[in-house]
UniProtKB/TrEMBL annotation:
This is (2S)-methylsuccinyl-CoA dehydrogenase. GO terms for molecular function: acyl-CoA dehydrogenase activity; flavin adenine dinucleotide binding. It comes from the Bacteria. PANTHER family: ACYL-COA DEHYDROGENASE, ISOVALERYL-COA DEHYDROGENASE, MITOCHONDRIAL-RELATED. Keywords: FAD, Flavoprotein, Oxidoreductase.
Amino acid sequence: MPSPETKTERTPETIAPAPPELLAPWRSAARLALQAEARAFARDVVLPLADELDPKKGEMPRSLIDAMAEKGWFGITIPAEHGGMGLGVFEYCLVSEELARSWLSVGSILARGQGLGTQTLDDARRLDLLRRSAKGQWIGSISLSEPTAGSDLAGVQTRAVREGESWRLTGTKRWAGFALAADFIEVLARTRDPEPGEPRSAGLEPFLVVKEPGTFPAGMTGHAIDKVGYHGFQTYQLELDGVRVPESDRLTGLYGDVGADADSGGFAAVQRGLNIARVHTAARAVGVARAAVEDTQAYLQEREQFGQPIGTFQALRFALADMAAEVAQARAFWCQVAHLLDQGEPAESESAMVKLLATEMAVRVTNQAMQLHGGNGYTTERRVERYWRDARLTTIFEGTSEIQRRIISDRMLPREG
């Protein structure tokens, strides 16, 4: 392992302050204070853990999750009357960008709260779970994809069969992040086949599988998927063999959107949550790309060649300038789309656009950052390789870039029929 002395850029001072004007015209004193709090936490608490655990593919400790819970961040979007902060998508993404700047998975774990796993049919139970979610005491996993159904969620084949007042779930699910450590797993399953003339998504419903953290429930087994990056929590493939779920734990929607329309059907209620998830992914991608810019800025002043810092060479200075401009552009875009969602706009095309542009930007910027680090970038001595690995995933999860392009183009050029 390299000695600590070789990791010269791994200090809190390398995280430059974000220019407040980048939040305009949505800037406010409360938002700037929240941003500053999240930035300090990411710098002082998250970054040292990431540097220690990511090279070992380690998982974030429960103490980190508890510290985030104490700040109320698992309830950012939960109404104050239910114990949350009563804020919006904007603030949720604002905190997530800061956390992802230090470790992508920590920016992602916030999504496991925010009312996820609370949309049960029983009102009293839903309100109790909302309060627990806001406190960080109800943190879950979402299990949508399958080996043969990823971006095409309408192709889900896991079956849910009604047996009296309960359901039995059978099938294989893939890409269930945080599944073992979670308090619950949301599972998308098919209750019936579509009738002629119905959309392929007809009959898909989300179910709440309650479990003890650190174990899988009766009828479920899982094995961890060995990922290239996105360390911090394990991601699982799950085998469901008659997992029992009571009727009361059939859900009205996913992603914890407390404003979802319970009468619109389980699959239809997913749509707003997916839009929020796409903007959240854009913000996380911006955080990762910003990390690459800031570390590269420090490196160009530290590394010397031909008797001078390489940051004096115009080609490298201009490359850094382009990187910074792309990050600022993507941040402004996610701010705009988050604002639209908070105003009640569907913003479906805009959510797809910002997810597409921000994640593709993150791949370009982290790749350029590795190039500007030269041979040192292709080692584990520098964080830039972590940013590069993590950024690559952002173009895939929450809908691939190709799916985002299809969403956008289908709304610009509707298909006949």
